[in-house]
């Protein structure tokens, strides 16, 4: 079980939430004017905003309580996915 936990932590450290947003269809676009070095603001459609923080390792939705790591982001974007499927998709 410990090897599995270490693998999950390596994935979290190596995959940027920004990369997931940019590869999701339809893609999220970086709002450079509203972003800073510490927080990248992404927009997709009307009222769809996500902020990537913690060097790409975390994210949050300013319009809800949704937030988390890369796995939580994939589940947020694709609510029907289970943890195992979200994990495999990264």
List the helices and strands and how they pair.
Blueprint: H1 2-14, H2 17-23, E1 29-30, E2 40-43, E3 49-53, E4 58-60, E5 67-68, H3 70-77, H4 83-88
Antiparallel strand pairs: 1-2, 2-3, 3-4, 4-5
Description:
With 90 residues, the chain is of the alpha+beta class. The protein has a single domain (2-88), classed as Alpha-Beta Complex (DNA Primase, Chain A), CATH 3.90.580.10. It has four helices and five strands. Strands 1-2-3-4-5 form a five-stranded antiparallel β-sheet, with helices on one face. A hairpin with a 5-residue loop joins strand 2 (40-43) and strand 3 (49-53). The model has no long low-confidence stretch (mean pLDDT 88).
Helix content: 25-40%
Task: Give the mean pLDDT.
Answer: 88
Question: What overall geometry do the principal axes of the alpha carbons give?
Answer: globular
Strand order of the largest sheet: 1-2-3-4-5
Order of helices and strands: HHEEEEEHH
Strand content: 15-25%
Count of domain modules: 1
CA(first)-CA(last) distance: 20 Å
Number of strands: 5
CATH topology value: DNA Primase, Chain A
Largest sheet: 5 strands, antiparallel
Low-confidence stretches: none
């Amino acid at each position: 079980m410990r090897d599995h936990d270490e693998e999950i932590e390596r994935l979290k450290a190596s995959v940027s939430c920004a990369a997931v947003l940019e590869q999701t269809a339809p893609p999220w676009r970086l709002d450079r004017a509203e972003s800073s070095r510490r927080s990248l603001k992404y927009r997709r459609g009307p009222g769809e905003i996500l902020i990537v923080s913690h060097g790409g390792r975390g994210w949050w939705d300013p319009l809800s309580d949704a937030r988390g790591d890369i796995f939580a982001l994939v589940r947020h974007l694709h609510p029907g996915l289970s943890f195992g499927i979200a994990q495999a998709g990264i």
